[in-house]
UniProtKB/TrEMBL annotation:
GO terms for biological process: regulation of gene expression; RNA processing. It comes from the Eukaryota. Residues 1-22 form the signal peptide. InterPro entries: RNase_III_dom, RNase_III_sf. Keywords: RNA-binding, Signal. This is RNase III domain-containing protein.
């Protein structure tokens, strides 16, 4: 009787050991599965994009989301794009007023409106970064459409703001990516 119980105890112990070992192993496989996508073309494109904008994400998932159009997935860049748009407006206002505190409100509004234009400014900046080749869209969606490129471009700055928990770095990165073109418009 005692021997039987002992045998059962050993069997139970072995089962638990095997089970926990297999879970650890499964865990490793899961981690390996997560590492794999970093060698995909999309992940490589995100690496290049980070170098282009001069900002490295702590959470690369935010840039993945910024480069995902709503036609592709429910996890998309729509909300990040709204935040990014506001970051861009702030960056333009800050630089313009720092340069000329006497600037008229009309002129400031004109500069903000100009930077927000989808067709020219926003999509142009996005195209220059080659976002139309990076952003993930559904097969039926043309990723070169200004609305798509623009949304992805704005979302970059929303993503940086979330990554850092403040908008300072996002504003700085926007200003360097945009190349101070607003200042030039100002002197015209
Ligand atoms: C995609 O959109 C761009 C910009 O609007 C346009 O020039 C291009 O012809 C479109 N491509 C297709 C395949 O519709």
């Amino acid at each position: 009787m005692a021997f039987r119980n002992c045998g059962f105890a050993v069997f139970t112990l072995l089962s638990i050991l095997i089970l926990s070992y297999s879970q650890v192993f499964a865990g490793r496989e899961l981690v390996g599965g997560r590492i794999k996508p970093s060698s995909s073309p999309f992940s490589s494109a995100l690496e290049i994009l980070q170098k282009q904008i001069g900002y490295t994400f702590k959470n690369i998932g935010l840039l993945r989301r910024a480069m995902t159009h709503s036609s592709f997935s429910e996890e998309n860049n729509k909300a990040l794009s709204i935040l990014g748009s506001s970051v861009i407006d702030t960056s333009v206002s800050l630089h313009s007023l720092a340069k000329d505190i006497d600037m008229s409100p009309k002129e400031l509004n004109r500069l903000i409106a100009e930077i927000s234009k989808v067709e020219t400014s926003c999509a142009g900046d996005g195209m220059q970064l080659g976002l139309q080749k990076v952003v993930r869209v559904s097969p039926k969606t043309n990723s070169s459409m200004p609305s798509v490129v623009c949304g992805a471009f704005r979302a970059i700055f929303g993503a940086i703001a979330i990554d850092t928990g403040k908008s300072d770095d996002a504003e700085t990165v926007f200003w360097s990516v945009h190349g101070g073109k607003v200042g030039k418009a100002l002197s015209m």
